[in-house]
Request: fold
Amino acid sequence: MAKPNRCYILILFLSLFFAHETKAQHTNEKLPLIEILNTLETQFNIQFNYAEDAISDVKIIPPPKRLDLNEVLFYLEEKTDFVYSITIDKMILVVAKNSNEKLQKLSEVMVSGYIVNGINKLKNGAFEIDISDFDILPGLIDTDVLQAVQAFPGIQSSNETVSNINIRGGTHDQNLILWDDIKMYQSGHFFGLISMFNPQITQRVTLTKNGSGTEFTDGVSGTIAMQTDSEVNKNFNGSLGINFIDANGFADVPIGNKSSLQVAARKSISDFTETPTYNNFFERISQDTEVETNDMNIVNSNKTFDFYDVSLRWLYKINANEKLRVNFINVANQLVFNENMVVNSDENSRKSSLTQNSIAGAVLYSKIWNRKWQTALEVYETDYKLKSINANILEEQRFLQENKVSETSIKLKVDYKLSDDLKWRNGYHFVETQITNLDDVDQPIFRNLVSKVLRTHGAFSQLSYQSKDRNTNLNAGLRYNYMGKFNKHLLEPRLSVSHQFMEHFSVEVLGEFKHQNTSQIINFQNDFLGVEKRRWQLSNDSDIPIIKSRQISAGVSFNKNGWLVSAEGYYKNVKGITTQSQGFQNQYEFTKTAGNYEVQGIDFIVRKQFNQFNSWLSYAYMNSDYTFQSLPENTFPSNFDVTHAIAFGTNYSSNHLKVSAGLNWNSGRPKTNPVAGNEIIDNTINYEATNSSQIEDYLRVDISALYDFKLSKTTTANFGIAIWNLLDKENIINSFYRFNNGVVEEINQRSLGRTPNLTFRVKF
Reply:
C-alpha cells in the first residue's frame, strides 16, 4: 500500500506545481499593454510598431504563455480596440480598429523602420516618415521634417540648411516641396537653418527620389510631400512647447461629429531672450554678408531677427462618401539692422532689412461615387515674396529688391477600380505661375521691373497593379504637358515596379521623365544683403530653358530578423540648367549659359534592430559632371559632386526614454583653386581646371535624448536635449577666392559650431 500512496503524493505534488506555474504564467492582474508588447517582442523575437500615445493608458491581463504567436495576436485583438497586422518584413503594426484609412496606408509598406521606427519604405519606391510613430534621430528633438529627410542616403545639404537640400546631385530648386498638395516656394526659417513646416500639424511625409506618380509635375530631382491628418478627430487634443529657438502650440478641435479643426503656430523667442542656439544661428546666416561686415567706416547695430508661422487645416466629412478639406499657411522671416556712420561730427543711421514670406491656401473636395469610382478636386493658391531694402549710407542710396511668385493650380483626379488587383487613375492639371523681379535704386533713379506668366496644361493616366499575394506591385503611367506660350508638348512616362521573392528579398525598378518651368538663380552674391541671394525665375524656352530630367534606378533589399541590407544604383540626366542656377563663385560666376548635368551613383544602407536598440550605416557614392558646350571646359565636376558620404547612427528606445547618437562624414565639395605660383594674370585670378580640387572632408557628430512622463491621467510631457556638432569641429562648407587690392584672398564659410538645444512640451 505504500507505493500507491507515494504515487498519489507525487501526483498531488505535480498537480500543485503545475497549478502554481499556470497561475504564475497567467496572472489575473492587469498590466500596461506597452509592457506586455515588450515581453512578447523578446518571447517571439518580433517587433511591434505603434503610436505610444494611443496605447499608453491601455491595461489588460497578459496572454497565457502557452499560446503561439497567432493565438496571442487573436487574444490581443479580443481584449483591446486595436488590430495587429503582420507586414511582409514581420513587423506587427498596431492600429485602432476604427482607423480603416490607416490600414490601407499600412498595406503600402514594404519595409517598416527603414532607418528608425516611423521611417518606412513603401512598395512604390518612395519613403514615408510617420510623425505619430517617429522615433528619434541624432541631433533632432523636434521632428524637423526637412532635416529628417537628410538621413536617407543620397540626400544631403551642401551647406547644412533645409533651403539647400541636394537629392542625388540636384539643386534645391529642383525639389518639389508640397504641404497638403500645395507647392511651396520657401522651405525654411532662419533663412534655411530650420524647417518652416510645423511638425505638430504634419502627420506624414513622403519622399520620392524617382518613379513619382503621373499626377505630380515639377521637381526633376525629387519630391517631398507633407500631409496633415486625413481623419476627423472626435476628441480634443493639443500641446504647448518651447525650445531654444521658438515657442509653439497646437490644437486639434472637434466641431460636432463630422468636422475638426487643426491649428498650429510658432514664434521665435528672440523678442524675449537670446539663447546660445539663437546666437549660433544668427552668426551662421550672417557669415560673409553685409550684415556681419560692412564698409570699414560703417558700424552695424541693433541686429534683430524674428520669424513665425501659422498653419490651419479644417476637415469636414459631409457624409460617408464625401469629404471637404481646407488648408491655410502663413510664414514670415524678418532681419533688420542699422548702418551707422559719423560724417562731419554728425552721426547718421539708416535701416536695412530683409523679409521672406509665404502665404497659401487650398481646398480639396473628394467623393466616393460607388465601389469603383472616386474623384478628387484640388485647388490652391500659393504666394512667395522675398524683399530687401539695402541702405547705402556712404552714397545716401536706397536699393530695393523684390522677388515674387504667385501660382494657381487646379487638379482633378478620377480613380476607377478595374478589379481587386488593378486600379486606373486619370486626371487633368492646370497651373498658372507668375514671377516678378524688381530692382529699384533711388539715387540715381533706376528701376527694372520684369514680370512673366506661364500657363501649363497637363493630362495624366496611370495603372496600379498589386498581385493577390501582395508580392508584386506595378505603377505605370504617362503624363502629357502643354505650354501654350511656347507651343510645346512634353510626354513624360513614369514607372515603379517592386517584387518580393524568397520571403526576405525584394527588387525594384524605378524610372521617370519630368520637367519644371521654374528655377532659382544668383545674379550677384550680394543680392538681398547676401543672406538669401537666390531669386525665382520662369523659363523662357531660349536662354532660360525648360529643365528636363530622365532618371532610372534599380535596387535589391534583404530583410530578416531585424537585419536590413539595401542597395540601389541610379542614373540621372538633367538638361536645361543654367550657370546662374548652380552657384558658381569662380571664373564662371558671371557667365550666363545653359547646359546639363549627369549623375551616376549608388545608395546603400545596412540596419540592425535588436530589442530596444537600433543601429544603421549608410553610404552614398556619386559621380556628377556638368556639360556646358559654350564654356572653354565642356565637361567638369558638378558643384554638388560629393563623391562619398557616410552616416552612422544608433538609437535606444524604451517606454519613456529615447536616446540617439550619430555621425555624418563626406569627402567635401569641389572647389577651384588659383594656379599655384601664378595666381594673377591681367589683374584677374588665374584659376586651375574648374572644380579640380576639393574642400576638406566634412565630419559632424550629433546626439539627442527625449524623456516622456505623465503629469496627470490625461496630460503627458516630454523633455529633450540635443547637441549639433558635439565635437565643435570647424567644417568648411564653402571656399572661394576674391581679388582684393592686388592680392588673391581665400574666403572660407564655416558650418555651425557646437549648438545645443533644449525642448519642453506638454500634451493634453
Notes: Residues 7-26 have pLDDT under 50 and may be disordered. The chain has seven helices and 47 strands. The helical segments are 2-25, 33-44, 52-55, 69-79, 100-106, 145-148, 276-286.
